[in-house]
Automatic annotation (TrEMBL):
GO terms for cellular component: cytosol. Substrate binds at H177, K181, E215, D234, K325. Pfam families: G6PD_C, G6PD_N. This is Glucose-6-phosphate 1-dehydrogenase. The keyword NADP applies.
Length: 494
């Protein structure tokens, strides 16, 4: 993740009027421009909508007002707006090429970068790539692709083959926005910058790992997209497996993108194929009534699974992954459960072990947090133990304002040519390969009530362990009210 200066860049935004573009990409590019991380920037939007450049600027302005989390300075907006152009898809590749060349003429130097961002539905990706070729915009370019990268092993291989007909692999940036989240990158810092944890980061000390991403939102607006996707393809193959790779990989030989990518791919190579018996699929009650959903749909809106990484570090350690829609809470946690001591010298009733093993927990929320829980003695006579914890919240530091939103970070890295947080063709294909037994033979979909943690079968899946969520104890409030019964940690221990 080395720092480099960025070349003057024209972003060619395919799907510029879509949901992702409006919510994340346009506000994100404005912030990169304002913060001078990308100050020599031009944007040429394109989509099926018949907009004029002025109408596109208006759409961008509205999107920024609605979705940007930062104050909009009108002077800066006007400066940014002058850098936006739009060419409808119907105008054809030549018109798009001309607009990009006109934008480049406004940039300094003669080595401008073209960053094609494909924020389009998967079925439109190959036609966008064809347009790029016909518009003669492949030279000096990189391409950012949005998931899903295929829907199974064969389609992933075919998609990569077609992409490679136009772009070399080093030009391709397959985005996984979870890896762009600041706390996800902090896993690498935490593991490899400290002498404390890496020596115990293996099967001798770790009983199991959970990567748990429940969501409260339903699918009332995305039913037709989701029907052909489901929770496994939408979240597990893309985001959760990438987080797993950061959690499980060996130390890379350096912090260079190729070295990190190599170690991630080795984790995927060591993954055992996902067995249908180790998977619980669920569908929330009411999904069948959502617009765009087939009345007899068996698309899963929930998935929980157990998987194994068959290498020296992780042999026999289960990794439990779970995600779903309309669940009881929205969270993104990684939880490392440590082995319990081989023997207990504490008397029955002392409380040791009553609250599960010691845990190291990463909360990948925008307000990132981390916690290490352990047993300690309650003050006073006798030997009563309770679960205590050390907690860290990024929000309590002076760094909180410096956090880049995931898409900002990823666009910036793609412009710098840094592949660290992106997925390789090889990695994607391997993940579909290990998924194939499940895709070929999916277990029955179980109903679950909205606002729960999924179907009952999730408990059998994780036994003899238990799911961390819902947390037995809440994250610590910065200013807790220490009631008379509160133990020394202030009553807010995970
Ligand atoms: N929305 C999100 O939060 C996330 C989205 N993604 C991924 O981002 C991509 C885009 O998603 P999203 O923005 O939600 O989708 P939308 O359907 O909201 O937007 C898609 C955009 O692509 C345009 N488009 C459709 N077909 C073509 C085509 N053949 N040529 C050129 N433009 C086309 C649409 O134009 P028009 O509006 O005129 O139809 C629209 O502007 C998908 O791959 C999705 O998986 C990934 C993570 C999160
Ligand atoms: O890619 C996707 O991610 C979102 C969840 O992302 P987050 O950053 O909001 O946690 C998910 O809702 C969506 O279904 C999926 O396509």
């Amino acid at each position: 993740m080395s720092e480099q200066t960025t070349a003057p860049t024209t972003v060619i935004l395919f799907g510029a009027t879509g949901d992702l573009a409006k919510r994340k990409l346009i506000p994100g590019m404005l912030h990169l421009f304002q913060s001078k991380l990308l100050d020599d920037l031009r944007v040429v939007g394109t989509s099926l909508d018949e907009l004029s450049p002025d109408e596109f600027r208006k759409l961008a302005h509205t999107a920024i007002r609605e979705f940007s989390t930062r104050e909009l300075d009108e002077d800066e907006w006007h400066e940014f707006a002058q850098r936006l152009d739009f060419v409808p898809n119907s105008a054809g590749p030549k018109a798009l090429g001309d607009a990009v060349r006109a934008a480049e003429a406004q940039l300094p130097g003669d080595t401008e970068l073209r960053l094609h961002y494909l924020s389009v539905p998967p079925k439109a990706a190959l036609s966008a790539i064809q347009t790029i070729g016909e518009a003669d915009l492949v030279d000096r370019s990189r391409i950012v692709m949005e998931k899903p990268f295929g829907t199974d092993y064969a389609s992933a291989v075919e998609l990569n083959r077609r992409v490679h007909e136009v772009f070399r692999e080093e030009q391709v940036f397959r985005i996984d926005h979870f890896l762009g989240k600041e706390p996800a990158q902090n896993i690498l810092a935490f593991r490899f910058a400290n002498g404390l944890f890496e020596p115990i980061w293996h099967r001798n000390n770790i009983a199991h790992v959970q990567i748990d991403v429940p969501e409260t939102l339903g699918l009332s607006t995305r039913g037709d997209f989701y029907e052909n996707t489901g929770a496994y393809r939408d979240m597990v193959v893309t985001h959760l497996f990438q987080i797993l790779a950061f959690t499980a990989m060996e130390p890379p030989t350096s912090l260079e993108p190729a070295a990190i990518s190599r170690e991630k791919n080795k984790v995927f190579e060591s993954m055992q194929p996902i067995q249908p018996n180790d998977v619980v699929r669920g569908q929330y009650l009411g999904y069948l009534d959502e617009p765009g959903v087939a009345p007899d749909s068996d698309t899963e809106t929930f998935v929980a699974l157990k998987c194994y990484i068959d290498n020296w570090r992780w042999a026999g350690v289960p990794f439990f992954l779970r995600t779903g829609k309309r669940m009881a809470e929205g969270a993104r946690i990684i939880s490392i459960a440590f082995n319990e001591p081989p023997q207990s010298m504490f008397p029955p009733g002392s409380g040791v072990g009553d609250h599960g093993p010691d845990h190291l927990t990463f909360d990948l929320a925008d307000k990132a947090r981390m916690s290490l829980s352990f047993y300690g003695k309650r003050p006073g006579p006798g030997m009563k133990l309770d679960k205590l914890s050390m907690q860290f919240a990024m929000q309590d530091t002076t760094w909180a304002g410096a956090v880049l939103e995931a898409y900002e970070r990823l666009i910036y890295d793609a412009v710098r040519g840094d592949h660290t947080l992106f997925t390789s063709a090889e990695g994607v294909e391997r993940l579909w390969e290990v998924s194939q037994p499940l895709l070929d033979n999916p277990p029955v979909v179980r109903p679950y009530a909205p606002d729960t943690y999924g179907p009952n079968q999730i408990h059998q899946l994780v036994a003899p362990h238990t799911w961390r969520l819902p947390f037995e104890r809440k994250w610590r409030d910065k200013n807790p009210d220490p009631g008379p019964q509160s133990p020394i940690e202030g009553g807010a221990r995970p």
